[in-house]
Amino acid sequence: MPEEKPTPVHDRVPVTSGTEFITSFYRLFKGATLYDRKSVIMGRLTEECLRVVNRIIQREGHLLLKIVRDHFFFNNTRIIASADKYLLFKTFWREMRKRRVGGIEFSEAVTGDHLNDLAYLLSGLEENQENNYLFVEKQLEQRNIESIEVGKLELLKDEEIDGNSEGQKKDSKEVYFRCLGLVREGVETIRQQNPLPIRKAKRLMQSGVDAILQDDTTLLGLANIKNYDGYIFNHSVNVAIYAMALGQRIGVSKKYLSHLGIAGLFHDIGKTKIPGEILDQTGNLSPEASSLLRSHPVIGTEIIMGMKEWGELSARMMEGAFEHHLGYDLTGYPRLSQKKTITLFGRIVAMADFYDALVRPRVPHRFPYASEKIVGMMLERRGKEIDPGIAKVFIHMVGVFPLGTLALLNTNEMGIVTQVQEDTELINRPKVCLLSYSGGEYRKEKVVDLIERDEVSGDYKRSIVKTLDPNEYNINVAEFFI
Ligand SMILES: [Fe+2]
Ligand SMILES: [Fe+2]
Fold first, then answer.
1. pTM exceeding 0.85
2. Taken in order 116, 117, 119, 120, is the CA torsion positive or negative?
């Protein structure tokens, strides 16, 4: 299902070199936005990038990175991000596009000072200035740096630069709440024996995919809000969001991403036929009630089978509905009489379902598992109930401290995680919005980046000591995303 064909062996050298360059240069670029040029940290980042650049020059003669539409081309080979580099690539891509820079070229070996100049010049550029590349070129010329060139971002016909982030945020929220409405409507129509509103779902999911592809931070943040009103609706929308966000990281194409979203939205549709008393019960279920509850994947599949006219889409939806309680190792339910393998859609929806159920338990008074614990549980189940590859990508995606986590820092400050780090090696160092307490309530303060280090000692300025339960402090996490 992934869109891309496997890379032929002879193309792997540029892929590896390209990934190394993008990674080390992005770190240097980001460092330039945070630190002073003379700091220990910049020294280290420069050295690392220099090693990569000069090794590539030595081996391949030159280094050319270009942005064409959504893609990076490195020495004329298209580079596809591996799942763990997905966010880093995407962030770098976005930062370059915002500055209208579409290419970086090194024609011979460079010095650390040259690299540093380039990183600070690029990071200091104003957004949306068409002639930024000329400015950088001129600056490089004045410094007698002849081996580096930057190019203009060439926009193809019908191509647009991303809208502003506030606009994106608004779109994401709208998608989230429209999805909630759609699931509500779906549940109602099924109860009245009518077919699911698939045409509407398809249209909505197209916007969902666009929002996910642009920036999934807001949607993932909304999914992490612990909201107990209409649990089943929120749960369904969250599963759809996690599934799509995961799908895009493993290369599922746009068309199938929307199918994945719809499969997520309606994975529990079989529950519409289970009596409410059973669904709402918080204690232990009787054996009969429990087996009735466990029939929802089969019931859901039957409901979807009634919509054969949707062809491929209904086949994908059935996979989500039938397989979402089946483990990768075929444990779970429904019990299978014949050995089969779980489909990609089934594994993705199951992963999303597992996570959402733990991070937002159905029973309101039960304290949700702390995120570190969930990651531990996922690691424990990897290769058994959970597909190992999918678990890995998922952990990279949500981070050890997912969006919306309330954290206590070693500085005794408290904050809410508002952005996961794009560099997966720094997965435990998200961006945090600090909170202050006065007049009986908590207020938003500035956002700090936990990768920031002290320029003299080189130590991290802030680290998370532990996570806290927002309900205990009467903090409404939703406010940070809505
Ligand atoms: Fe379920
Ligand atoms: Fe579910």
1. no
2. positive
